[in-house]
Amino acid sequence: MFKLVAVGSCGMYTGAALYISIVQHPSLLCVQDHEIQGRFFADMYRRATRFMAPLSVISSVSALSIWFFDKSEKLWLISGLLMASLLPYTTLAMLRLNLELCSVRSPARRSSSLLYSKLIQWGRLHAVRSVISATATTTILYTIQM
């Protein structure tokens, strides 16, 4: 049961993260109106947070549970720790920028060039989450295949 939950939640997180990195964020950067960019980012952020944060927790807890009950399952430990690292990474590396980009009063939301540079910065930081989750998913899939 834990394996199914880990695979599903990790895969869903990875798919969403990659979609944002490869499709949604680059499309947002093409929008010419910085007011629309700011409103869209704030809405996207709120929706993605409600979807992705629980997936990272569910994935990490289920993968770590597999290792907890069978200490020989080291790859489950690795994937669980990778997924568990996403929440502190987001909090420490991205939260301040996320809040700035979501705040209507933020200087970044009033200047198109500043907003654009902050969105570029956000994209780079988010790409780290995509790589971490893709690594965790690949590890899980490799473990299941073994």
TrEMBL record:
Indicate the transmembrane segments per the record. Answer: 12-31, 51-69, 75-95
InterPro entries (UniProt xref): Anthrone_oxy (IPR013901)
Name recorded for this polypeptide: DUF1772 domain-containing protein
Report the Pfam families cross-referenced here: Anthrone_oxy
Q: Does the keyword Cell membrane apply?
A: no
**Alphabetically ordered keywords of this record:** Membrane, Transmembrane, Transmembrane helix
